[in-house]
Amino acid sequence: MPEKGRLDYDLVGIADALSRHEYRVPTYQRSYAWADAEILDFWDDLRQSLDAEEPDYFLGTLVLTPHEEVRRITIIDGQQRLATTSLMLAALRRVWIDLEEPEQADDIFNNYLSVFDRRLNTREPRLMLNDEDDQFFRELVVEDKSPTPERESHERLSDALSLFKEKLDADARAHGNKSGERLIRWTEFLDNQATAITVTVPTEADAFVIFETLNDRGAPLTIGDLLKNYLFMRAGNRLDSVRTSWIQALNELDISAENEVFITFLRHHWSSMFGAVRERDLYSGIKDEVRSANQAVRYAKQLAKAAKLYAALLSPSDDYWTERHFGTSVKNNVATLLTLELAQNRPLLLAVMEEFSNRELKRTLKALVSWSVRGIVVGGIGGGRTERAYCEAAVAVRTSKITTTEQLLKQLSPIVPEDDDFRDAFGRARQTKSAIARYLLLALERSKVGDAEPELVPNANEEVVNLEHILPRRAKQADWPQFREEEIGTWSQRIGNQCLLKKSENAKIENKSWRVKKPILARSSLRLTKDAGRADDWNMNDIVNRQRRLAKEAVKTWPREPVK
Q1: For residues 144 and 164, what is the distance between their CA atoms, to the nearest angstrom?
Q2: Containing domain of residue 337, as a range?
Q3: Which segments of 175-259 does DSSP mark as H helices, in order?
């Protein structure tokens, strides 16, 4: 074990490194990530180096640290390369078995893949992966089985072994009666010439300082990787607490690694506390604020708590909504925000979910649906101005400057369109996204029949109600002579040209003419569709007039002022 504060360096063959120690991948590290492209690059580079008889092929740096209570060395950086090398050696062993050379196969198995545990009286893997991959890896590599993959990382492990076996078989055949010599040369190459620098440090905290400057071959570090290891470094002797909170955050989001969902969550959560931040500035911003072990522990706990809330924003069926005794209306509002495909409001919602009462949260969700629809119709809601406004409001909520939905509207007033602007924009709007168009028409239908909460999703089941373009998007001009060919694309996407039909009715009319469509629309049980069917003809004026009527209804359906 290195002395306190001292780093030990060594240049070793990658297979030799496996033979020297027993290793473990920490629970918090990502699962096996190399796909076929990385495996083929790895194979091609090694084969070319072997054939060129180069003295060494460098595989980068492995960052390791001993564990005080476990005999295995912990891998901080390098698990993908060590696991991939193990898979290649396991494939090499299988080739020897096929050639009926058990001694050669046993040599690889005993030296690089397994170690005998006299207390358990069994062979254990020299490399233990994280909790999600370890049992599968053990069965695949040590027990020489063909286990059934249960997750993507398992499929990648199995595919990598199969690909290496295929490549080694072909390579051996290409060397004819010298195939045995070629396979021995592969083992010696991995043992001596495919080299890596091992950096062994006294503690995990020391290791993270090294790790932050390094990058796994073929799998670049994400902001999530960097942040995780920065927090672990800052945690010092409170590492277990930070690690537990980090894993909890991943579990709440139902992910096993720091993927794009996690990075977006990190950015939204930080923005909810400090204002809008770009992804590229997130890591440096957190480093400036989190400088001590106590701060690292506190921030990790905040992440775990916020991850539970963020997961609820991604799923209206999440247990969170039931646990807080919210009814169907709240869940439908969450579903609607997802349908509208807007994420800019999530920093604000994270703050509101933590700081507002249940009643006020319910009112805010309802209001955000209206404000979001208004923003989509008028335009500009996808820009940075909107996100900055939501993030500034989130900070105001967290600092108790805003405690009600009315105060939220006052803060957000510059980005929430007024009635006149909304009505005018709705009267001209086109909508190319079917899911959003269906939602708008369903909500307007409920408003027309006097529903108390028309903005809720009435029926999101496309098997029951379909979106119908009265003037078809691919209309034949012979059937629709009132429109020039170049006008069809524009007018067919106008909201006034869209209606709802039962699926069975929709299938009958498809791209037919107005003469065919009119009686079917007129018989519809949906009031807005029935009204459209009363038109004598269907031309531009009919679309404009119908859309103006819908625009008036829209102002009532999605009110600007929060509902009491």
Answers
A1: 15
A2: 315-417
A3: 179-188, 204-211, 223-235, 239-252
54 and 79 share a domain? yes
- b/e map of 41-63 (b: 16 or more CB within 10 Å)? ebbeebeebbeeeeeebebebbb
What are the tokens at 457? 């999703």
In a domain, 53, yes or no: yes
Domain match, 203 and 228 both: no
**Is the separation of the CB atoms in 258 and 299 below 8 Å?**
no
* β-pair partners for 501: 466
Q: What is the pTM of this model?
A: 0.67
User: What pLDDT digit, counting tens, does each position of 25-70 carry?
Assistant: 887 777 898 999 999 999 999 999 999 887 788 898 888 888 766 6
Quote the tokens at residue 427. Answer: 């009267």
Contact 115, 124 (CB under 8 A): yes
- Give 165-193 pLDDT, tens digit per residue: 999 999 999 999 999 999 999 999 999 99
Whether residue 10 contacts residue 208, with contact meaning beta carbons closer than 8 Å, is answered with no
Among 300, 108, 280, which Cα is nearest to 186's?
108
Does the residue 216 lie in any domain?
no
